[in-house]
Amino acid sequence: MTPLELALSCPKAELHLHIEGSLEPELAFELAARNGIRLPYADIAALRAAYDFEDLQSFLDLYYACADVLRTEEDFRDLMLAYLRRARADNIVHAEIMFDPQTHTARGIPFATVLAGLEQGAEIARREWGMSTRLIMSFLRHLSEEECMRTLDEALPFIERIHAFGLDSSELGHPPAKFARLFARCAALGKPLVAHAGEEGPPAYIFEALDILKVARIDHGVRASEDPALLERLAREEIPLTVCPLSNVRLCVFDDMRQHSLPALLAQGLCVTLNSDDPAYFGGYLGNNIRAVQEAFDFDAATWRTLMANSFRASFVSEAERAVWL
Ligand code: ADE
Ligand code: ZN
Fold it and tell me: Looking at this predicted complex, what is its ipTM?
């Protein structure tokens, strides 16, 4: 078996996936028709042609616009099920999935509708395919901390159904410190915390996410390679990074895959995991990320074993649950 075959075939976890970012153009048009909505694109090909991003913001503008087709519980169920079906084909057995409630509640979709639909999809995948999932409720950092506080208030009646909290959306100009009080409240609820940091933002944002927000994991973190002291700390404290290689290339964080900091992060002994971020928009699911990484770096079998073991080690499942897969 080649190292690539090993990586593709072994059971794995995905820890950085925005469910709204798994909305394929085909499903977007299907949901638009079902809900009587007109997308501002003539057809699937025209929408796909718009997937030419110059940075994170240019992607987010399209991502939020497409999310408008998600209206009903059934829509969120179908979205979740489509992702999990595709994830299963990549031998993903466990997924920790982010959702952005504010993208939907701002349009008048009740929090309860979003959550119930996503849970229905996850439940079908558990029953039919034995897949395990956790939901991470993510706050949009381009909004004010007060707005996010109100969203947290809205989530409180459902708090037992939310596993963890995260922070995403436009990073530059919205440092983690802006959400110090919000994350203190989330921590007091006893939930694990994650935050996007060091995707487009500087290493200082990663330090803030650790020191101020007290996150257990950093989403992306790829700019950590610019700061030796940060690398040393991430290694010492065994802070996992959920790296999304195709995303970083598509959003021009790196000019091409060969420039990616992944080998440097691994060389420092960091707990790196591979993930697909927004697979519908960035050229593929986890399997496609693995192929692209292997083409660029030709990793050996031991490196792939480490990466796949890291996906469980960095997850929020218990040792006992993990033992089933490892
Ligand atoms: N929301 C969805 N994808 C994201 C990304 N890559 N960075 C920040 N926010 C996001
Ligand atoms: Zn992300």
Answer: 0.98
**C-alpha span between 115 and 105 (Å, rounded):** 11
Strand partners, 2: none
Q: Which of 14, 20, 199, 200 is catalytic?
A: 199
Of the candidate CATH numbers 3.40.50.1980, 3.30.1120.10, 3.20.20.140, 1.25.40.10, the domain formed by 3-312 belongs to 3.20.20.140
CA distance 311 to 293: 16
Give the residue-averaged pLDDT of 277-294.
98
Dmax (CA) for the chain in angstroms is 53
Is 53:250 a contact under the CB 8 Å cutoff?
Answer: yes
Please name the residues in contact with 153: beta carbons below 8 A apart, sequence gap of 6 or more.
none
The b-or-e profile of 7-44 (16+ CB within 10 A means b, else e) is bbebebbbbbbbbbbbbbbebbbbbbeeeeeebebeee
Say if pTM beats, i.e. exceeds, 0.80: yes
Question: Separation of 233 CA from ligand 1 center, angstroms?
Answer: 25
3-class secondary structure per residue, 231-245: HHHHHHCCCCEEECH
Q: Answer yes or no: is 163 a known binding residue.
A: no
